[in-house]
Amino acid sequence: MxxxxxxxxxxxxKDDYLExxxxxxxxxxxxxxxxxxxxxxxxxFFEPSTRTRLSFESAVNRLGGKVLGFSDTSQTSVSxxxxxxxxxxxxxxxxxxxxxxxxxxxxxxxxxxISKVPIINAGDGANQHPTQCLLDLYSIKKTQGTLDNLKITxxxxxxxxxxxxxxxxxxxxFNPSFSFIAPEELRLPDEYKQFLKQRNxxxxxxxxxxxxxxxxxxxxxxxxxxxxxxxxLEYEKVKNVYVLRNSMLDNxxxxxxxxxPLPRVNEISTDVDxxxxxxxxxxxxxxxxxRQAIICKTLQLL
Length: 302
Ligand code: CP
Description:
Bound molecules: phosphoric acid mono(formamide)ester
Shape: globular
Strand content: 5-15%
CATH architecture of the largest domain: 3-Layer(aba) Sandwich
CATH superfamily of the largest domain: Aspartate/ornithine carbamoyltransferase
Number of strands: 9
């Protein structure tokens, strides 16, 4: 690890990923341990969240630590005009670790340069969501038995989808091949295609789901994120562009698993939920074990 904060997935090495997965597997077997006794973790959410905030708080509670923070800035001095810099300087006096989500790309990096305590990025705009990435890796390893040589098919908002950006960077260590399925307006940005080309990683791009999901080991669905569009009309054009239905899984591989960082809106029909190929709710549960591992590693407690 280059420094103690986790801001981008590139702050971790391949060995760090493997260590987190090993620790997460141990926490899955034994989630209640008093490792954080006497520690305080702040969760600062400048943008809405269900899974990330609550799974971090669950992770801290199961490890015997205490949580403080906010999920709505309207009840804080941010609403009076206090800057991010001053907010982070203050909270880093009150906690041993700050978990932060912010709508602006780069906000977590900036916070890590100001804070006296480590920062864990819980999502910064369309940029990065490294802890989601690590729980995605854990879910892929758990369901496929390996991270190596897999076909990963990513569907939906590949332009603004920060979980997509983090995951393709992390998977690049494991010789994947990618299929990117997106409408023209939401194609994967060139910088990420350049990243893959420099590493000789195969990828293809499509605009249609069928039959392009049939050879996947992982189908990674994403939501078209209304909050990232400056123009509501642009969002209306693409919001329901892909809907995965149960019947579309008939010709997919027996081992395929469907992942989604959630929340979903319409992009996975509820008739998929009972299909054994659906894994998104288990994936969300894996968040607790993975975040227990990340917190302990960041605080150098294991
Ligand atoms: N996956 C994820 O980040 O979900 P939340 O927005 O609910 O935290």
